[in-house]
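User: Run a structure prediction on this.
Assistant: Running it now.
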Amino acid sequence: MSVSTSPVQQDALLHARVEVAECLGQSPPHLPYRLLWDEHNTALYDRIREQPEYYLNRLEMHLLQAHASEVMAASGARTLIELGSGTGEKALPLLQHMTAPVAYLPVDVSTSALNHLTERLRHASPSTTVRAVAADFTRPWPPVLREPGRRPVLVTFLGSTLGNLLPAERHGLLELLAGSLRPGDGLLLGVPLLHDVEVMVSAYRDAAGLMEAFYLHCLRILNRDLGTDFDLDAYAHHVVWAAPSQRVEIGLCSLADQTVLVPGPPAGRRVVFPRGEVLRATIAVRFTAGQLDDELAARGFEPLRHLPDPTSRYMLLLARLRG
């Protein structure tokens, strides 16, 4: 017995397939980030962040715990919006130093992560009003984010995700934030800093192989949900330092000449991957300490605090939107 889909579901499937075909057809080909998350990958990413090689999460948590009181006092925030919230663990130190009543709006593309987060906050911070928002925060914000309630608002963008954006994407996000917030609202960024290349690269080559498993499962998601026919055995984990761009590039290298089908009306699209071609999954840009100040100032933000960790591998940057 076949199962029919509604027109809305069919439209979403069509748009997703078009997006995948466009991403795979670009140079270099890359995976569409927003389509790569399910419950399995969400749980796997939580395990990745606990690996000894992945120091970024630990440094950021230490900084948040050490400086949460200072950050919240400087921002005066009554509402917290977290972009790419994941498990929500990084919001807890900030919520604990906010003046009640507190509103918390976690934003993530993963509905399973948002469901787990909401349940966790119900126990960990029962006085917090949680309004989960399933959305791609790089696109125009839904009304609930533009009018979130009590002000000032503090938007957090943590987890070193800032480094996963290309320069044009980063500039676009900062412009979106400047247009969505009001004067006096704050922005807290997690900023991965430029340091030893071997250490930066090793964060994406964990000995347990979880990072490779994560990106191979991305292909499994596309095969399962969109009907592509990636051969998971024909790809190997690929990590390289790109010095001119000041970033780590992470992806999957094709082990043979192959063709991948992306279904869709009228006849779908076949994408050729020669042996050795890299299907880029993400990038990890590393910044110098003051590199973002001019980018923020150009969009109306005034940097208030630079809070680096003692090893100078990571930094929290607090800024405020000027009037």
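The mean pLDDT is 91.
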